[in-house]
Design a protein that fits this description.
Layout: H1 8-11, H2 17-45, E1 50-55, H3 68-72, H4 83-93, E2 97-100, H5 121-135, E3 139-142, H6 150-157, E4 165-167, H7 178-194, E5 217-219
Helix pairs in contact: 2-4, 4-5, 6-7
């Protein structure tokens, strides 16, 4: 596979009139589809639960001009566009909560490939946090990779006052090992203890939803 800078489109073509036309069309198809799904879900559930949809944390090539990985996924986050604000607006219009991933990642971790792939999960998460806050969309988070270490838990905890729910991935035999389970218990206590998302008691783990809001939450 070619890296973005080895291709004409992601070197300069994305900035051309054609490139902008194509990326607008491509991203619009994703947004229109998402709006339809949220509308159908709301209609089917008739307001009995708050629906929630997930936006993927595509952090590879975030620190490149083209944002190649994101725009390939339909997130138009280049050419002075803010893909996450545009997506958050759609969630706001449909009264839906939003779920975002990669909250455990740090740029200086080898798995992130910050130098090799210009990945920047920390800046990406911050952009999503700003977008959700600006559009007043309830935001939940999750970890992108299976992690059982305090280093990852501490990074997640750094966001707890800006999210309203957390889904932990995932329940495995490794998590249940005595040392890992002890760390996880402490992580859950820390999540619950400080509150988040303005509710003070809604943060949980392993898919648990805590008190502090009305109704139940479903993933769309």
């Amino acid at each position: 596979n070619s890296r973005p800078f080895e291709t004409e489109f992601f070197s300069s073509g994305f900035e051309s009139d054609y490139g902008k036309f194509f990326l607008e069309w491509y991203a619009s198809a994703l947004k229109e589809h998402g709006a339809r799904v949220l509308s159908v879900a709301n209609s089917a559930l008739q307001g009995k639960v708050q629906i929630s949809g997930k936006i993927a944390g595509v952090h590879w090539w975030y620190d490149s001009d083209s944002h190649a990985a994101e725009v390939t996924a339909g997130y138009y986050n280049t050419n002075s566009r803010d893909a996450y604000d545009e997506l958050a607006q759609i969630f706001a219009e449909h009264g839906a909560a939003l779920d975002f991933t990669s909250l455990e990642m740090r740029n200086d971790e080898a798995l992130v490939q910050h130098e090799e792939c210009k990945a920047d999960p920390e800046a990406l998460v911050q952009q999503m946090l700003r977008a959700a806050a600006a559009r007043k969309v309830p935001l939940g988070g999750e970890n992108g990779l299976e992690r059982y270490d305090q280093w990852a838990y501490d990074k997640i905890l750094s966001y707890k006052d800006r999210i309203g729910a957390f889904t932990y991935l995932r329940l495995t035999a490794t998590l249940l090992e005595p040392g890992n389970l002890a760390l996880f218990r402490g992580f859950v206590r820390d999540l619950r203890g400080g509150g988040g998302g303005g509710g003070g008691e809604r943060l949980g783990a392993a898919g648990e939803r805590l008190g502090g809001g009305e109704g139940e939450e479903e993933r769309a």
